[in-house]
Design brief:
single chain; 219 residues; Rossmann fold; binds cytidine-5'-monophosphate; 2 domains; 5-stranded parallel beta sheet
């Protein structure tokens, strides 16, 4: 099966672009951030020690997270409406920094791509999870633009957070994601890096689709 990876920092447009691209190609979408978020929700509910890699790993290993189109299921429960909040997002770092959780989720992600052609988005998809992907992209945008996009999303979802607080949260999350000892966020050597600042996401998807179709023809 073929894999297109899309990595990059929060708010760079990955989710929207990945969803649109998967739809246009009729491939399945793999939102790996949703997996980390679902594990975080489970960890908060179970009140495990977030500082303990062993506890987090044991918890993750016993979970059943599914990503049917348009939905996120944690042990059969629809949780897509519960995993995007500001507080959960702040707790994410413990889960994303846990080597045991990462090991487990890499397994889930590869299993997902065994059965489908996949557009996958995350931080480590081109570097660690799918080093032999058919095509790799790394999306970026300026911090200010990314904060503005996230702010608009939160307002749509009626979450209260100031643009300044969001900017600080994003900056901290980026720094942590990039500095992580295992699977740090960075472009794969063979990734196409796209700066989406000032571009419409439709435009970005158009370029990517064109590029992929051209490669599919010659593959
Ligand atoms: O993309 P999203 O904002 O949903 O990701 C949430 C967090 O999950 C990221 O900030 C990152 O810490 C973590 N993550 C990760 N590796 C991935 C996807 C997400 O570490 N492949």
């Amino acid at each position: 099966m073929r894999v297109v990876t899309i990595d990059g920092p929060a708010g760079a447009g990955k989710s929207t672009v990945a969803r649109m691209l998967a739809k246009r190609l009729s491939w399945r979408l793999l939102d790996t951030g949703a997996m980390y978020r679902a594990v975080t929700l489970a960890a908060l509910r179970a009140e495990v020690n977030l500082e303990s890699d062993a506890e987090l790993g044991a918890l993750a290993a016993g979970l059943h997270v599914e990503l049917p189109p348009g939905s996120v299921k944690l042990n059969g429960e629809e949780v897509s409406g519960l995993i995007r909040g500001v507080e959960l997002t702040r707790a994410l770092r413990f889960v994303a920094d846990s080597p045991s959780v990462r090991h487990c989720l890499v397994g889930w992600q590869r299993a997902f791509a065994r059965d489908h052609n996949v557009v996958t988005e995350g931080r480590d998809q081109g570097t660690i999870v799918f080093p032999d992907a058919f095509r790799k992209y790394y999306l970026t945008a300026s911090l200010e633009e990314r904060a503005r996009r996230r702010h608009a999303e939160y307002q749509g979802a009626r979450e209260r957070i100031s643009l300044e607080a969001l900017l600080a949260d994003l900056r901290e999350r980026d720094e942590r994601d990039a500095a992580r000892a295992i699977a740090p966020m960075k472009p794969a050597q063979d990734a196409c890096v796209l700066d989406t600042t000032g571009l419409s996401l439709d435009e970005v998807v158009g370029r990517m689709e064109h590029d992929i179709r051209e490669r599919l023809e010659t593959a």
